[in-house]
Amino acid sequence: MTDTSINAQSQTGEAQFGDYFALLKPRVMTLVVFTALVGLLAAPVPVHPFIGACAILFIAVGGGASGALNMWYDSDIDAVMRRTQKRPIPAGKVTRDEAFAIGITLSVFACVFLGLATNWFAGGLLAFTIFFYVVIYTMWLKRWTPQNIVIGGAAGAFPPMIGWAAATGGVSVESVLMFCLTFMWTPPHFWALALFMRNDYDNAQVPMLTVTHGRRATRVHILVYTILLAILAVGTAFTAVGGPVYLAVAVVLNALFVKGAIQIVRRNEDMSEADNFAAERKFFKLSLLFLFAHFGAILVEALLRQFGMGGW
Fold first, then answer.
1. What is the pTM for the complete model shown?
2. Torsions phi, psi of 130, nearest 5?
3. Do both 197 and 159 map to the same domain?
4. ∠114-120-126 over CA atoms, to 5°?
5. Which spans are transmembrane here (predicted)?
6. Of 45, 83, 183, 267, which has the maximum CB count within 10 A?
7. More confident residue, 277 or 127
8. What local confidence, expressed as pLDDT, does residue 206 receive?
9. Mean pLDDT of 287-302
10. Would you say residue 1 lies in a domain?
11. In a shared domain, residues 21 and 157
């Protein structure tokens, strides 16, 4: 992990604010912020708007810190993958040392101030999430096992639990359900990406399922996880965070998601890669809508309950 060539290259360009901001993985941060906000607002304990805004800000900063530390450690992989070659470190805009310093500083800042603004359980849960993403997933699982994204997916599933904890000071069945929703969504989402980006993982020698078990096995795994996800997602409609609005969204989207997974698994391996990639890209894009729509429906149900209209 001491790739001096990357550090030398990093000093050939002048970093702009956008380069440092890119270290925080803003697109991933959007998902973190949204699911954390839903967890916060769906909680049965009201939170003062200012405290709630501070909580979401610190959770976002913590998520960004994780991204910076991920780019610091994975800079060697990023340099050989087409999808990541333009990130700040391999692009020669930011050094690895700078990324590490930013990640550590923001991690401490986010966890301490979330604890001060809300409660120390939430601050501790955010700290554990950062540790899990950086150490358990990035440093260990990602380069060791094809189940990397399955187990490592827990890191991206914690934000709604952190939002809930910021409001309540603890964990409940409802927050665990929101965790499970994201956790089960992660494998088919990333495996779909890996199917049409397989050469990247081959070149980087990352043991993604597509590399270790092949595309056919990956497609079968996507279908299995999608069916399990559908059961969980629709079942959540009949819990305290669900309701008629959520049920309608869940039924429609999970039907489309399962249909997409079936289309992928039925693909003929002799077909052109362009045809295969079209289905996989479509499924990947649908997976992005899938999670945002489900959490959006949970948020709508929470807001309706405040006016005595939500739930069953």
1. 0.90
2. -60, -45
3. no
4. 55
5. 28-44, 50-73, 94-115, 121-141, 148-170, 176-197, 218-238, 244-262, 283-304
6. 183
7. 127
8. 86
9. 97
10. no
11. yes
